Amino acid sequence: MEFSAVDYVLIIAGYLFGSIATAIVVSKLMGLPDPRTLGSGNPGATNVLRHGGKKAAAITLVGDCIKGVIPVLIAKLFTDSELVIALVAGAAFLGHLYPVFFGFRGGKGVATALGVFLAVDWRVGLATLGTWILAAIVTKISSLSALLASIISPLYMWWITGSQSYLILNILLTVLLVWRHRSNIRNLLTGNEDKIAGPDEEDV
Prior knowledge:
Blueprint: H1 5-18, H2 22-29, H3 45-52, H4 54-78, H5 82-97, H6 110-120, H7 122-139, H8 142-161, H9 164-180, H10 182-190
Helix pairs in contact: 1-4, 1-5, 2-4, 3-4, 4-5, 4-6, 5-6, 5-9, 6-7, 6-9, 7-8, 8-9
């Protein structure tokens, strides 16, 4: 498949949009400390919650999710190619993980991945979110719930969309999510991962 100039613009724009670190922007606008300098150092909603409160954390969470939604929806307006849409989605996700505007030091990607899934197919997004909620109720561990939901999500993507491009995208996002949660995994294996709302819980 040959890519058009528009396709390249969409992919680059997706990465740049994903590179807007919501946690850092929200913290600055609300007069809060830079989340990279506190706690786990992760610019994500959990670290913002710990040091900035529920309102700032909620805005950060929604903002990170939107970073996955908007680039995909815009791509769908310009192309019907599932491959291009998947590449735009992947670029937005990589932008969140490795933001060019903030020294390539980003979050762990759970909310942005959810946004991507919702935009690709809302049923996949809701199924993944439902899995996270159920796992959170049972385990009461946020990171474990995110890992379980992300690992199961490719099954939802394949069953609901039947798209090879979207499935490959989902698998790659899952691999990156697991990699970014390696410190959480170590804590889970040693029994040191705190419950949801625990003061020292690793960010997701």
